[in-house]
Amino acid sequence: MAQTNPDLLTPADREHYESQGYLVVPKLFSTGELAAVHEQFLRVVNGETPPAQDMLVMKDVMVAKGAVTPASAAEAIAKVQDFHHDPVLFGQYSTHPRMLDWVEAFVGPDVKSIHSMLINKPPNVDGRHPLHQDLLYFPFRPADRIVATWTALEPCTRENGCLVVVPGSHKGELRKHENPKWEWLNLAYFGVADDEAIAERVHLEMEPGDTVFFHPILLHGSGRNRTEGFRRAISTHYASAECEFLPGAAPLGKTRPYLLLRGQEHEGRI
Description:
The chain has 270 residues and is α+β, with helices and mostly antiparallel strands. The chain has a single domain (11-239), classed as q2cbj1_9rhob like domain (Jelly Rolls, Sandwich), CATH 2.60.120. Helix content is 19%, strand content 23%. It has six helices and 14 strands. Strands 1, 2, 3, 4, 7, 10, 12 and 14 form an eight-stranded antiparallel beta sheet that branches. A four-stranded antiparallel beta sheet has the order 5-11-8-9, with no helix packed on it. Strands 6-13 form a two-stranded antiparallel ribbon.
């Protein structure tokens, strides 16, 4: 892990991340700071604000296939992806200076955003995400210079499907992923088949503003929302601009660009 911002991560923080593969930072954002993010999401979902360029508003599979009739527009939506052109979601979360300070501590001084999403997890749908590794989606390395951020917008509990992680699993390799044999599975919710890992999972119950940083090889997922409310979180993945594409990997796409947020570009890298 890059040894930058030495005063931000305590030795205990750094040891926990390196040994366990994740670190929860309580109250990285205040409730007031997150209010604008929450309100923008609802404006987009309710049709009050058009989706930004490249933004994908995804219905839950049970809604899309007519198995569930949502009581509101928000209850239909599983997630909003690729909000890098949204001035509120991206501007007040992904590029917030406090967030970038923390990200720099994990990936180094030259920081790029590589993916963004807001996960809604409404009531009355399956909504599970199997244990998986995010490195599956990123055609560049090294993995140690990539980090995910995941911030609770509302209380995230075992009852409403909080994030689960398998501590220490980031020390392994990228595993084979496949669609689990579930009746209802949202698009691209791939997972690994590993019953032992499921038994070792830890539930990360979080309050609004709490943020977890985790390694792209860390096994993680989430369960069903068994409540009548929502379980909302916002997330961005970041990587060092020094990362290199894997041999034969395609360059960055039109709808998911890798945007330099801090530091400098590196010729021939991502």
